[in-house]
Amino acid sequence: MENRRLFLFKGFMWVLAGLAAAVAVLRFALGLGVSTALSDTTPWGLWIGFDVMGGVALAAGGFVMAAVVHVFHQERYHAAARPAILTAFLGYGAVAVGLLFDLGLPWNIWHPIIFWNPRSPLFEVAWCVMLYLTVLALEIAPVILVKTPFQKLHGLLSRLALPIMILGIMLSTLHQSSLGSLLLIMPFRVHPLWYSHLLPELFFVSAICLGLSMVMLESSVTSWLYKREPEMEMLSGLARLASFALAFYFLFKMVDLAIQHKLGLIFDGSWPSSLFIIEMLLSAVIPAVLFAIPAVRRSSKALWFLAACSVGGFVLDRINASGLSQVWATRNFYFPAWTEFAISLGIVSACVLVFLFIEEHFPVDPHALEQTEAERKKQESALPAFAPFAQVWLGEGWRKSARVYSFLFVLAMAFGLTVAPKTEPVLQMPAKRAVGADILRMGPGPRYVYFDHKKHQDEAGGDKSCCICHHLHQKGDVGTPCVVCHQKMFLPTNIFNHEAHVAALNGKASCALCHGEAEPVKVAPLAKKCSECHEKDFMAQNPAVKVFDSKWAPSYKDAMHKMCIPCHEEKAKDPKVNQPNLGRCGACHDSGTATEKAYLAKFPDSSKPGGVK
Ligand code: HEC
Ligand code: HEC
Ligand code: HEC
Ligand code: HEC
Ligand code: HEC
Ligand code: HEC
User: Fold this and answer.
1) With a 6 A CB cut-off, is 463 part of the ligand 1 pocket?
2) Distance of CA 441 to CAs 39, 436, 454, Å?
3) By Cβ atoms counted within 10 A, which residue in 114, 215, 366, 506 is the most buried?
């Protein structure tokens, strides 16, 4: 391998991709509960903060360079425009993939196309991502098509390049700002230092700054990888532009804070304030000042370092706004699980690999293509790749690296699969038996609903009320806890035991009892109904749930909701009860009700899992 640096770098990317592939299997097989550290209070984690928010911002280079080159006609930046647009395309692709990981029901991702909810900021976000990804694909297509037989299509797309470019600039302007709007609806969650009515505008301006830094970083890194001379003239030009943009962003942010009388918050010494200072220094202040100095602009190392600093600062900004700045409101610190890091890094590495592949094989950056092409030719002609005696291909050059890369990928994936956490999927989570004195505490772990059994009993008519809720019992019992049959939190449970029935009903002779004498085939739907035998011993008299035909006891959640909510909704309308909110989720799921407080006073440990036996 000629270029060892590139070889090692790509190998490392393949390792990361392999690890991510293993975690991906885990995430889609076992769910978010197993593969992330997310919770109901922190439903947005690294995947939203970095992959989606950060990913979109990192892709900003595409529209910024398109505007600089094709709208403002700054032709000297031409060489940077195509790689930037390619990055944007891959960045947006990464965002879409990141979303698939983060969505609870990823197969519903197409819903915004059909089910319109124009009042939701997410609706705008979804449409912008879809349209802009399409436009970016059209922008980048000519580069690929030029090497294929579809020359007519290539010609057509090349002629439409300008209108497509302008459409792309419009869409991404909309989209960068709509990610800010997404946060506008959380005034009580986002920390005041980040919350502002101008969030959409701030996001847009910061995207422009980040776009410029990202283009510089990318150009520096590819020159380093391919051992080319950095394009200093272009880089220092971009740095000058960036210093203006960054200074503007900084002023904009400060004036915005001043108008809201929030400047004092920056220096109040709290954790968010330190975070804010670090973010501003990294993203704007340090790069803006240093980029303005001509001597700095002439040093390729300094430019590389400052661009990285600014990119890091802006990614931190997105992570702060969508995550860290909400900790003060949720009072729950979330730290991503290693599996989350693996996915994020894996997506980035996959993008880098695709980027390098396209750059090496298609005319994205003509210099790069020439160089790699020449290198490949040299390799191919130099190698006796075929061993005539052994009749095997020794394989050198790309064959060898392909073998090494695929080995690394598989190795990393196997390693990932071995170490990945393999707890039960959340769906199978067992429900816990309600415990407590008069008041019952239901559900597993930290989830519980306070349910005053005595009060409900009295309310529903005392001793005769039981069957309203206790529709089935075990033999010889009254008030069998629901969890005996409704065993899992989110999945139904089969409570029928075929073997035990055959044994209890005299073995072979029993078949006819349930499947009928004349019945040649024994199939489930034709078997005798459960209630025909268990009417007396299992079923409560005159229960609310009148059927017992199915061996499937619904999930605990369904049993509770279907039992409790209809009565609550009805009682909510009853002026005598005078509780209009009884039917709402909060009636049961909000903590802090009077009964709960009384209960906690009596059993202080009970809100902790396993607190009461
Ligand atoms: C409003 C519905 C409702 C009514 C009315 C009701 N119960 Fe219950 N009962 C429940 C629920 C819910 C549980 C919790 C079961 C669980 O999670 O496993 C329960 C639990 C019980 C338990 C088991 C407690 C334990 O942990 O072992 C007994 C015994 C019981 N009820 C008896 C009765 C009797 C007797 C009556 C009638 C006087 C009655 N219940 C009326 C809903 C009700
Ligand atoms: C002995 C087992 C058993 C016990 C105990 C039990 N259930 Fe059920 N439950 C079932 C079965 C089986 C079904 C399904 C009946 C059918 O659809 O044929 C069912 C159905 C239900 C349904 C109807 C769901 C629907 O889809 O309409 C509700 C509501 C319900 N149970 C609530 C409760 C509550 C509340 C308790 C405790 C107070 C309880 N069950 C105790 C076995 C049980
Ligand atoms: C207590 C009633 C009962 C008795 C006794 C009984 N079965 Fe069943 N059988 C059922 C029910 C209910 C099902 C469906 C259960 C399921 O799918 O899990 C079933 C399912 C079956 C099936 C599978 C049908 C399918 O669609 O998959 C076969 C085969 C079968 N029984 C054969 C027998 C034979 C043979 C005997 C006698 C040794 C027997 N059963 C005794 C109730 C009974
Ligand atoms: C032909 C009559 C008959 C039918 C139909 C029948 N059972 Fe049973 N079932 C029995 C007998 C008999 C026993 C054993 C009772 C005992 O242990 O005293 C039993 C026991 C049970 C038990 C407790 C024993 C255990 O551990 O499994 C459950 C639960 C049960 N049946 C559920 C069902 C369900 C669900 C259906 C419908 C799919 C059903 N049965 C249909 C006769 C029947
Ligand atoms: C038969 C009707 C009925 C059923 C069934 C019922 N409830 Fe209630 N529930 C009421 C009424 C009426 C009240 C208001 C009682 C009061 O505060 O005087 C109430 C109050 C409550 C409260 C207190 C709400 C508050 O804001 O203080 C909780 C919690 C609750 N129910 C939970 C449940 C759960 C859980 C179930 C199902 C296991 C259930 N209820 C089933 C009628 C019902
Ligand atoms: C009448 C009381 C009541 C009402 C009203 C109610 N729930 Fe529940 N819910 C329960 C009970 C009881 C459980 C059992 C699990 C538990 O103890 O947490 C439950 C469980 C759940 C669960 C699964 C357990 C968890 O914490 O993840 C979800 C999700 C849920 N409810 C959502 C809702 C939503 C959304 C609403 C409003 C549309 C609602 N509930 C209204 C009583 C209620």
Assistant:
1) yes
2) 21, 6, 13
3) 215
Domains 45-374 and 430-494+538-607 are alike in CATH topology:
no
Q: What is the DSSP letter of 281?
A: I
Domain limits, the chain: 45-374, 430-494+538-607
Q: Which tokens belong to 499?
A: 């073997």
Dist. CA 232–CA 223, nearest whole Å = 11
pLDDT of res. 56: 87
Say how far apart CA 110 and CA 323 lie, in whole Å: 26
| Among protein residues, the one whose CA lies closest to atom 18 of ligand 6 | 448
CATH fit for domain 430-494+538-607, picks 3.30.1380, 3.15.20, 1.10.8, 3.90.10: 3.90.10
12, 20 Cβ separation under 8 angstroms:
no
The domain made up of 45-374 has a fold known as Formate dehydrogenase/DMSO reductase fold (1.20.1630)
430 beta partners: 488
Question: Does the Cβ of 465 fall within 6 Å of ligand 5?
Answer: no
Contact 240, 297 (CB under 8 A): yes
Q: Is 453 in the pocket of ligand 1 (CB under 6 A)?
A: yes
**DSSP assignments along 496-546, one per residue:** --HHHHHHHTTGGGGHHHHH-SS-SS--GGGSPPHHHHHTTTTBPSS-SS-
456 lines ligand 5 (CB under 6 A): yes
562 lines ligand 2 (CB under 6 A): yes
- Strand pairing of 392-393 and 386-387? antiparallel
d(CA 610, CA 332): 21
CA distance 584 to 187: 24
- Which are the contacts of 84, defined by CB distance < 8 A and separation ≥ 6? 61, 62, 64, 65, 66, 211, 214, 215, 218
Distance 524 CA to ligand 3 centre (A): 6
The Cα–Cα gap between 553 and 420 comes to: 33
Q: What is the pTM of this model?
A: 0.65
- How many whole angstroms from 429 Cα to the centroid of ligand 4? 26
Amino acid at 25: V
Ligand 6 atom, smallest distance to 443 CA:
17
Query: Residue 344 has what pLDDT?
Result: 94
Nearest Cα to Cα of residue 65 among 284, 219, 180: 219
229, with CB counted inside 10 A (0-12, 13-18, 19+), is exposed
> 595 to each of 101, 253, 400, 565, 608, how far by Cα in Å?
40, 47, 71, 19, 17
Residues of the chain with pLDDT under 70: 1-2, 366-369, 376, 378-399, 424-428, 435-439, 443-447, 518-525, 590-596, 599-600, 602-613
